[in-house]
Amino acid sequence: MDFKLPKLDYSNDALSPIMSEETLDLHHGKHHQTYITNLNNFIKDTDMANMSLEEVITKSSKDKSKTGIFNNASQHWNHNLFWKCMKPNGGGNIPSKLEKRITTDFGSVEQFKKDFKQAGITQFGSGWCWLSINSEGKLVVSKTANAANPLIENMKPILGCDVWEHSYYIDYRNRRPEYLDKFVDNLINWEFVESLLD
Q1: Alpha helix locations (H) across the chain?
Q2: Tens of pLDDT along 10-62?
Q3: Contact 42, 72 (CB under 8 A)
Q4: Beta-bridge partners for 130
Q5: Which of 173, 148, 20, 151 is nearest to 162 (CA)?
Q6: pLDDT > 80? residue 1
Q7: CB neighbour list of residue 166: distance below 8 Å, 6 or more residues apart
Q8: Do domains 21-84 and 96-195 have the same CATH topology?
Q9: Are 166 and 27 a contacting pair, CB within 8 Å?
Q10: In this structure, what DSSP letter does residue 32 have?
Q11: Positive or negative, the Cα torsion across 60, 86, 116, 157?
Q12: CATH class of 21-84
């Protein structure tokens, strides 16, 4: 199957000024599209051509000779989640079911937000910070380098934030902590994140 660029649930200017139209044009229209184009070219006429995206990620993650496939497949998956995790006028109150789980597993919403932002700030170089459900059903915060994601650690990511420079440099230059503050406080689609709990 050919993987395709997903349509956003909002216009390219809808997240402005937190995430500018220029950033979304480049990030969604160029960077994400490039990962998909590369992935389709890599898997064409191979045994992976008819696999699901998750199957491609899992299989390629275990084979060093397939690093190119893994990087592009994982970045496609990561971005699919990332776009859904945001909405215009996001942030704000967390729905009760998700808030209760966060409070149980982190002690408080404030502690979770602190841990999540810190994971993004301290990810050296390119990568992601995540909220995932681990194999015991507990919510955990983690960070990954480059294209890696928690799927390959047998976890289910429910919130991801891209901390590659192309995600924030136009709007925030080198101020990654400010970008993470704005992402958490003004962009997260908490209803979508909650929908992934089950």
Answers
A1: 21-26, 33-43, 53-61, 67-84, 96-106, 109-122, 169-172, 176-186, 190-195
A2: 999 999 999 999 999 999 999 999 999 999 999 999 999 999 999 999 999 99
A3: yes
A4: 142, 160
A5: 148
A6: no
A7: 26, 27, 31
A8: no
A9: yes
A10: I
A11: negative
A12: mainly alpha
Give the integer Cα–Cα distance in Å for 24 and 162. 12
Q: What is the pTM of this model?
A: 0.98
Q: What CATH number is given for 96-195 in this structure?
A: 3.55.40.20
Domain assignments of the chain as residue spans, ordered by start: 21-84, 96-195
Report the relative pairing of strands 156-162 and 139-145 from DSSP bridges.
unpaired
What's the half-sphere exposure (Cβ side, CA atoms, 13 Å) at 70?
17
Please name which of 140, 146, 24, 154 lies closest in space to residue 73, comparing C-alpha atoms: 146
Here the tokens at position 178 are: 């400010």
